[in-house]
Write a structure and sequence with these properties.
By secondary structure, this protein is mostly helical. The protein has 6 helices and 2 strands. The longest helix has about 40 residues.
């Protein structure tokens, strides 16, 4: 099954996620909705700078803002994360297969090292016995 997302939307989403400040904002929102002031508190940024980050996250569809009187809390939009997860899941079989091949390769290296070590030990014992 192939999940396709609009390329522009996917570009916006990954661009938004590429910034550590925005990822920290998303992490805070994972705990529950918050105001811009709440989101700005842990950062050494101005409110307009945090607002710009929020707009990027909104444009990418990662968060939504509701309005209650003058209070406009931000919250995560789970559907955006489900879409990203679905898109990434189509590649899971490829990566699983690659990791399985790498695991087999590493196990082979471990066996080769063990054999080399055993040979070195045996050679050392023969050398001592010959003295």
């Amino acid at each position: 099954m192939t999940i396709t997302l609009d390329d522009d939307r996917l570009d916006d989403t990954f661009a938004a996620l590429a910034n550590s400040t925005r990822r920290r904002i998303l992490a805070r929102l994972a705990e529950g909705e918050a105001s811009v002031n709440d989101l700005a508190a842990p950062f050494d940024l101005t409110l307009p700078a945090v607002s710009k980050h929020i707009k990027v996250l909104e444009r990418a569809g990662l968060i939504v803002r509701s309005q209650r009187a003058q209070y406009r809390p931000c919250a995560l939009d789970p559907s955006a994360f489900e879409a990203i997860s679905g898109w990434a899941d189509q590649y899971r079989p490829i990566w699983d297969a690659r990791f399985d091949r790498m695991e087999q390769y590493l196990k082979g290296l471990d066996l080769d090292e063990a054999r080399d070590h055993d040979t070195e030990v045996q050679d050392g014992l023969r050398t001592r016995a010959a003295r």
